[in-house]
């Protein structure tokens, strides 16, 4: 995903992120599409309401969207790590994870 930039001057960039939500009770699905101008990344996630809980669609939206965004963040970190390796950076111990997901 990453390319060497040489000696180009600093610049501003805009990445477009679209978040799509769809609900079919008791499930909510989120799809995130990130367009960097050079690449397009996509991630999806779901949230499922317990049938004994009250129907509050906003909670399903938040859970599904948050999970899809976390997945997108992981993709970006993997792409950056690949770019760092491809650029010939020395290998260091990986950083400690911020959380331990149980996916």
UniProtKB/TrEMBL annotation:
**Lineage: superkingdom:** Bacteria
Q: Which SUPFAM superfamilies match?
A: Rv2632c-like (SSF143212)
* InterPro entries membership: Rv2632c-like, Rv2632c-like_sf
Mention any Pfam family matching this sequence: Rv2632c-like
Q: What is this protein called?
A: DsRBD fold-containing protein
- Please name the taxonomic classification of the source: Bacteria, Bacillati, Actinomycetota, Actinomycetes, Kitasatosporales
